[in-house]
Amino acid sequence: MGLVAILSISAAVVWLLRMVYYKAKYIYDRMTGMQGPAALPLIGNLHQFRFEADEFFEQAQGLGYMLEENGERMCRIWFSGLPFVLIYGAEEVEAVLSSSKVLHKPFHYGFLSAWIGDGLLISDPEKWRPRRKLLTPTFHYDILKDFVEVYNRHARTLCSRMYEVSGDKYSDVFHTVTLCTLDIICEAALGVCIDAQNKPSPYLDAVMEMKKIIFRRQLAPQYYPEFLFRWFGEGRAQEKCVKILHDFTGTAIRARKKMADEAGGVQNLVEKEAREGRRRMAFLDLMLDMNAKGDLPLEGICEEVDTFTFEGHDTTSASINWFLHLMGANQDKQRRVQYELDEIFGDSDRDVTYEDLSRLKYLEAAIKETLRLYPSVPIFARQVTEDLRIKDHLLPTGTGIVIMPSMVHKDTRYWPDPEVFLPERFLDTEANRHPYSYIPFSAGSRNCIGQRFALMEEKCVLAILMRQFKVEAKLATHDMRIAAELIIRPMYGNDIRLTRRKAFS
Ligand code: HEM
């Protein structure tokens, strides 16, 4: 190699190292101005991290409580060399979620992509923006009200399962409820009744297994690189699950598309089926219509159906479960819920109608209060791609932002006696709270697209359950250990005792 070449390469290496040094210094200088636990060179705070689902959440919350004294509800942590900022105050959250520039998700959302592709939840803003615009009308009340029948039907099956475990003993109902919410979302998204509450299926097993694999990987940095995960982690097990999941949704989508093509379009097909009283519109039908107009490719339909199925069953199940626990632990509040139900339904065992839903004011307040104490998604995150100012800090490009709704929901400035279960907070129309002090569904333009669906579903399912059963919780709320996985769940299950209130016809 000639001297010139050696000199050129050396100059390039020096130049690269200088760039890296200045970039690292730029980030480091900005991050050191922020409160946070002492970090070591290279590994940062990694050695202090707890990787168990309960300890990890407790640790993050503990850190937040320790570091709120100077009026800032944010702190920095170093995940090895990567800077992260934990955010747990309404004002700080507003700076992030109201910004149209902070819409990217960090790398660990990518672990979901084997299942849900590049759907709404994880896609980059360039892809996300037009698709969100396209899909938002899908969640309009005019469409959602047709799902009330689906909620009722599966809630009644859930009731039968609950009868089987009712009586003197306490039973863990967490999984039982999850099967119901999975039935509901599969029928709403795909138009297919998987009947998970009555029979096992490879699809059901794959859904359950896949969630565990994704969560285990999130807490195992050694498996972040794809090849290490594939060869030494659970990559192969994941591949098997993904095949079952995609075969199932792919087959249902292709079959429905074929039927729509044969009927001369989705609208014709849906109208024909409605005349025959056979089936109602599913999100899939609306998306096939978009596909026929050239707005959404078939691959996009698969991504979004899988995204809805993933995001739309565990979240609602967690929330229904915590609601049942809180009812069992707060008998006075349970009586108020049942008083309202008895006023509306009397002794009748009729279905819940769309009109009933808006009359269930106390039930709705109790659901919202449940989501305040136990927001189903314990943590969500953003990636800074342009320097972002929050209060006196400039978060440099590359910073990961981690938002903790459960802590935002316990800020005493907006939530007096934050640990107390008090649905009445949500009936108080005078309450003057910061608009970002309640964020179970996130907020801003990238909030939860399914929140109306979720609230309608929960109200309907819980109206049916609470009419039939009195609930008692085995443990007091302060004795429940919380596991923050993909959703927030009771670490050792949701043990409740159910006794029948009236006959089930
Ligand atoms: C109690 C129930 C639910 C809760 C608490 C909840 C919460 C959330 C949260 C916090 C996010 C933001 C996540 C992030 O930024 O990383 C989100 C996003 C999302 N949720 Fe939900 N969710 C619920 C139910 C549902 C349901 C039933 C569906 C579908 C029918 C759904 C579909 C979605 C989708 C597609 C996104 C991504 C939206 C986007 O980025 O544009 N969710 N949800």
Automatic annotation (TrEMBL):
Alphabetical list of Pfam families matching this protein: p450 (PF00067)
UniProt GO MF annotations: heme binding; iron ion binding; monooxygenase activity; oxidoreductase activity, acting on paired donors, with incorporation or reduction of molecular oxygen
PROSITE patterns: CYTOCHROME_P450
Gene3D superfamilies (alphabetical): Cytochrome P450
Binding site for heme: C448
Keywords of the record: Endoplasmic reticulum, Heme, Iron, Membrane, Metal-binding, Monooxygenase, Oxidoreductase
Top-level lineage group: Eukaryota
GO cellular component: endoplasmic reticulum membrane
Matching InterPro entries: Cyt_P450, Cyt_P450_CS, Cyt_P450_E_grp-I, Cyt_P450_sf, Cytochrome_P450_Monoox
Major location category of this protein: endoplasmic reticulum
Compartments reported by the entry: Endoplasmic reticulum membrane
The protein's required cofactors: heme
Homology family: Belongs to the cytochrome P450 family.
Protein name stated in the entry: Cytochrome P450
Organism: Pristionchus entomophagus
Origin organism lineage: Eukaryota, Metazoa, Ecdysozoa, Nematoda, Chromadorea
